[in-house]
Amino acid sequence: MSPIDVLAVGAHPDDAEIGMGGTLAKLADQGYRTALICLTKAELSSNGTVEERQKEAANAAKVLGAERMQLAFPDRQLSVYRPDCIAALVKVVREYRPKIVFAPNKEDRHPDHGHCSEIVKEAVFSAGIRRYLPESGTAAYRPTALYYYQINGVIKPDFVVDISGYVEQKRKALSCYKSQFNKNEQSAATPLNTGYLQAVEGRERLLGNEAGVTYAEGFLSDRPLLMSNLIGE
């Protein structure tokens, strides 16, 4: 398999699209090879079927110019299958050798997002250990950086990415998830179909305003970010 530049990991289809859809679209437009991977198929979601969600996820990835991979660990049981999840992600990281990996922010109202965050952090670290899973046949490799995107709520980010020119593309990608964000007579009321997308866009408008742009997505980093050019000339 040829290497990718960016790997965005989510617990469910739509996680990364919510948190960093604009950034993924921007990176793809800049010529970087990007990929999404989901740990579960979100089979316990209140609305939509697994089959519908898979089609929606494939369409959303296409809109963002990203490749897509799907694992099939049981929804709401990531903590139970934690060692297996870590091992599976280690194999993906070693095989595709992404420069940067993104995971959900650990501090999130949905427990799966927090579990996913911890699993990704361990996998990124373990992927660089030569004696971890030597039987996998893949050489040890550790990405340059691991960053965290926000799904629910508002955080004070360590850095933001200007997505002003890509917000429409993000809207289009999220609109693919009709089973999750559109409410009809058959669907159950959830946080996702009661003004959720408007709240996400409002958050990005706020972050953009604080950074001096129209829209921005915020990210966290475990390590200090090195500024190579303070003047910016």
From TrEMBL:
<dbReference type="GO" id="GO:0016811">
    <property type="term" value="F:hydrolase activity, acting on carbon-nitrogen (but not peptide) bonds, in linear amides"/>
</dbReference>
<dbReference type="InterPro" id="IPR024078">
    <property type="entry name" value="LmbE-like_dom_sf"/>
</dbReference>
<dbReference type="GO" id="GO:0071793">
    <property type="term" value="P:bacillithiol biosynthetic process"/>
</dbReference>
<dbReference type="Pfam" id="PF02585">
    <property type="entry name" value="PIG-L"/>
</dbReference>
<dbReference type="InterPro" id="IPR023842">
    <property type="entry name" value="Bacillithiol_biosynth_BshB1"/>
</dbReference>
<dbReference type="InterPro" id="IPR003737">
    <property type="entry name" value="GlcNAc_PI_deacetylase-related"/>
</dbReference>
<protein>
    <submittedName>
        <fullName>Bacillithiol biosynthesis deacetylase BshB1</fullName>
    </submittedName>
</protein>
<dbReference type="GO" id="GO:0019213">
    <property type="term" value="F:deacetylase activity"/>
</dbReference>
